[in-house]
Design a protein that fits this description.
The chain has 21 helices and 22 strands. By secondary structure, the chain is of the alpha+beta class. The chain folds into 4 domains: 218 residues, Heat Shock Protein 90; 132 residues, Ribosomal Protein S5, domain 2 (2-Layer Sandwich); 97 residues, Rossmann fold (3-Layer(aba) Sandwich); 118 residues, Heat shock protein 90, C-terminal domain (Four Helix Bundle (Hemerythrin (Met), subunit A)). Helix 2 crosses helix 6, helix 4 packs antiparallel against helix 5 and helix 9 packs parallel to helix 11. The radius of gyration is 33 Å and the shape is elongated. The protein starts with 11 loop residues before the first helix and ends in a 9-residue tail after the last helix. The structure holds adenosine-5'-diphosphate and magnesium ion (MG). Adenosine-5'-diphosphate (ADP) binds next to helix 2, helix 3 and helix 4.
Length: 653
């Protein structure tokens, strides 16, 4: 193989990965073998499926296998498979750019701090590139099944790679040959190789053979004869009792390309009208692309032990897209296109059963009593709750089940609650579950719309996930109690809880009617309506959406995504007991004070917009107005009684 061609540089992000990998002192370097075997096994899986419709692809070699060949004299270690292989374009794309999610996540999190980055290699794996932890040169020779030319890819992991036609055309499949570094001689020891394969790759369903070419002078021991070193039975076909925790975890790493400890596992066999086996995993930490619209679940579909596809979207709903694993069906036809599978009724029935079983398992975890388990559930919920809640937008029996295990931020304390806990604590006379939705619970806690509820000791759930306003629009209630958003419609807490502040009204009905009318005439088309509020206790004003209108937060999201063009018109609610409003009521009837009233009305509307996080139509005008009133307030200091009120919101005297 001539290396006369100048190497082509790696894509920039591959270069970064390699830089870390090549210089790594990662202590579990042996995982490189797991990665290469995992790729070989995937390649066999893919060809087996293709060969169902194109049997000629297999030629006279129908037995899939992975071979590890150790050449002790030349210090070479090769992993060879007779799977699907790669042609020139595939070699360049798959090995020259970052094709896999694990590596991309590694990069996203890599910090440049060596010790930390090394730990990340262990958590995410870096796929094929991990070969450079132990090799200073890697040569890949491959031939795509059905094509007549073979290609060679070679690299030292630093200067780039070359791709050229292979000197001798290999049979189909791929051989990855590592020129081991001086410090990696341990991987020439067959016992070491065997131990690694048992530890990480025993679940691989294809036979893995080990063959050793002894160095001159070494005698060929029994250890060195070609022999099979794995069990080669699909892990999910074995009984749970014979599978160790480590084996499960290694299999999870293989299917999920994720290297955390799974949070939950489901290994079930269904027998009856439909027969299938599922081995599914729920991760503990978020995959980095969880909110990427292209993200799909990671469940591979097998039919009678034959891998069919890992792209059958219909196998699980999108709100379970963090789940990965294997489903093996006895009933599906093998010779059917992936497109036809999407429509298949059997797939629909398996999907329903999987959803039910997964929710059973999650519910079991959510209900656990032990303190440690409760904390584990909350940690998990914080990672995945926002995705699971997407399931609330879909009709179905799972709605209630998701609500049962959901956790929410609450005004009660800094912690989280479940809905049953909320129901148990409801105030006397309370029927509804009160909620307020916004970007973050911390600032929601001080939202004016909560004031009256808090003053009466009514607990409110604070919804901070982007998905919340969407499901709130669909889900009517929980155990017969409606969800009521404090950001919408009229709320009336009369008869609920206990009023802690005196509620005698300083303004009479006629004065209120005049104040309302006057505010309306100033603000005109900028608001849908003006009315005295029952939800405010301390703040002068707030904006709410009309009853039956969209939740303001939902409206905001829709507008951001260009789904709604027009700025919504809100109802301005004012606090009829606030000294500022009382003072404004007093201005009516004095024509001299009309301009002042108008200014204040506009200022209040802008203030309400600020609280809502709404953009101000004219921020400059707002700032000038505010400046004028503040100047007056400091040049006419408040009287002692006003200053002593403590809310600092005395109106201009
Ligand atoms: P991943 O396996 O997660 O996709 P890798 O870095 O391990 O990521 O491999 C990158 C890609 O290279 C694979 O997706 C596959 O397309 C290709 N590849 C690697 N090894 C082989 C192989 N032995 N046979 C066929 N394709 C392979
Ligand atoms: Mg891989």
């Amino acid at each position: 193989m001539s290396m006369s061609t100048t190497p082509r540089p790696f894509a920039a992000d591959v270069g970064r990965v390699l830089d870390i990998v090549v210089n790594s002192l990662y202590r579990r370097r042996e995982v490189f073998l797991r990665e290469l075997i995992s790729n070989a096994s995937d390649a066999c899986d893919r060809l087996r499926w293709l060969s169902l419709s194109e049997p000629e692809l297999l030629g006279d070699d129908p037995e899939f296998r992975v071979e590890i060949v150790v050449d002790r004299a030349k210090k070479l270690l090769a992993v060879r498979d007779n799977g699907i292989g790669m042609n020139r374009g595939e070699l360049e794309h798959n090995l020259g750019t970052i094709a896999r999610s694990g590596t991309a996540r590694f990069l996203a999190e890599a910090s440049g701090d060596r010790a930390r980055d090394l730990e990340l290699i262990g958590r995410f794996g870096v796929g094929f590139y991990s070969a450079f932890m132990v090799a200073d040169r890697v040569v890949v020779v491959s031939r795509r099944a059905g094509e007549d030319r073979g290609w060679m890819w070679a690299s030292d992991g630093r200067s780039g790679y070359v791709v050229e036609e292979a000197e001798t055309t290999p049979p189909r499949g791929t051989t990855v040959t590592l020129h081991l570094r001086e410090d990696a001689a341990e991987f020439l020891d067959p016992r070491r190789i065997e131990a690694i394969v048992r530890r990480y790759s025993d679940h691989i369903a294809f036979p893995i053979f080990l063959e050793v070419v002894p160095a001159p002078g070494e005698s060929r021991t029994s250890l060195q004869a070609r022999r099979r070193i794995n069990r080669a039975s699909a892990i999910w076909t074995r009984g749970p009792a014979e599978i160790s925790e480590e084996e499960y975890t290694e299999f999870y790493h293989h299917v999920a390309h994720s290297f955390d400890r799974p949070f939950a596992r489901l290994h079930v066999r269904a027998e009856g009208t439909l027969s299938w086996t599922a081995l599914l995993f729920v991760p503990r930490t978020r995959p980095f692309d969880l909110f990427d619209p292209r993200r799909r679940h990671g469940v591979r579909l097998y039919v009678r032990r034959v891998f069919v596809t890992d792209e059958l979207e219909g196998l699980l709903p999108r709100w379970l897209r963090f789940v990965s694993g294997v489903v093996d069906s006895e009933d599906l036809p093998l010779n059917v296109s992936r497109e036809a599978l999407q429509q298949n009724a059997v797939v629909g029935r398996i999907r329903r059963a999987l959803v039910r079983r997964l929710l059973d398992e999650l519910t079991r975890r959510a209900r656990a009593e032990a303190e440690e388990e409760r904390r584990a559930w909350l940690d998990w919920w914080r990672e995945f709750g926002p995705v699971l809640k997407e399931g609330l937008m879909e009709e179905g029996e799972h709605r209630t089940r998701i609500l049962e295990i959901a956790r929410f931020r609450t005004t009660r304390d800094d912690g989280w609650t479940d809905l049953d806990g909320y129901l148990a604590r409801m105030a006397k006379g309370q029927k509804a579950i009160y909620v307020l939705s916004g970007e973050d619970a911390g600032s929601l806690r001080h939202h004016p719309q909560l004031e009256a509820a808090l003053a009466r000791g009514i607990e409110v759930l604070l919804l901070e996930d982007a998905v919340d306003p969407f499901w709130l629009a669909e889900v009517k209630g929980y155990r017969g109690h409606p969800f009521v958003s404090l950001a919408r419609g009229e709320v009336d807490f009369t008869g609920i809880g206990e009023a802690r502040t005196e509620e005698t009204a300083p303004l009479g009905d006629a004065e209120l009617a005049r104040l309302t009318a006057r505010l309306k005439s100033v603000l005109g088309a900028e608001v849908a309506d003006v009315r005295p509020s029952r939800r405010l206790a301390e703040s002068p004003v707030c904006l709410v959406a009309p009853e039956g209108g969209l939740d303001p937060r939902l409206e905001r999201v829709l507008r951001q995504h260009g789904q709604l063009r027009e700025a919504p018109r809100r109802i301005l609610e004012y606090n009829p007991r606030h000294p500022l409003l009382v003072a404004m009521a007093g201005m009516i009837g004095d024509p001299d004070r009309n301009p002042e009233f108008d200014e204040l009305a506009r200022l209040l509307l802008d203030q309400a917009r600020v609280v809502e996080g709404e953009p101000l139509p004219d921020p400059g005008a707002y700032a000038r107005r505010l400046g004028r009133f503040l100047a007056r307030a400091v040049t006419h200091p408040p009287t002692a009684t006003e200053a002593g009120r403590g809310n600092g919101e005395a109106g201009p005297s």
